[in-house]
Amino acid sequence: MSDIKKDHSIGEGTGAVAGAITGAAVGSAGGPAGTVIGAIVGGAVGAKAGDSVAEAINPTDYDRHFESTFREAPYYAANREWTDYQPAYRYGYDTYGQYRGQRFEDVEPQLERDWEATRAQSRLGWSEAKGAVRDGWHHIERALPGDADNDGR
User: Fold this and answer.
1) Predicted local distance difference test score (pLDDT) of residue 48
2) pTM for the full predicted model
3) 74 domain residue, yes or no
4) Of 18, 67, 119, 141, which is least packed with CB atoms within 10 Å of its CB?
5) How does DSSP assign 115-126, residue by residue?
6) Percent of the chain having pLDDT more than 90?
């Protein structure tokens, strides 16, 4: 598989997971059937959004960028490692396509609610992870001119 195809597959896969989690959470108001339907629909929408983000920002390059710079971020804590921050940056990448066109601040409450389910092995609580998620989100916005809160950060 070529690197480009692999990166698009990663983008689709991570978008599908983020969409499925959110869809299941929203659909759960309708009971068990709503949870299942929400997860399916959310997964399909997330896969499409993830693919479009992967076209603009290669997920492998995105990870490399943040892995080489996370220690310089103002939110970095010396007792934390890349394995703590990587899921937060990935979460920013995964959810950006799902919420594209909206401001980070407007969707932050939903992102915070879903963080526990998506944080993997990260030791970061939302208050520690939020800066990395936001940086990941804005990194993509800068690469996609015309998006909602593209303000040059």
Assistant:
1) 47
2) 0.64
3) yes
4) 67
5) HHHH-TT----H
6) 50
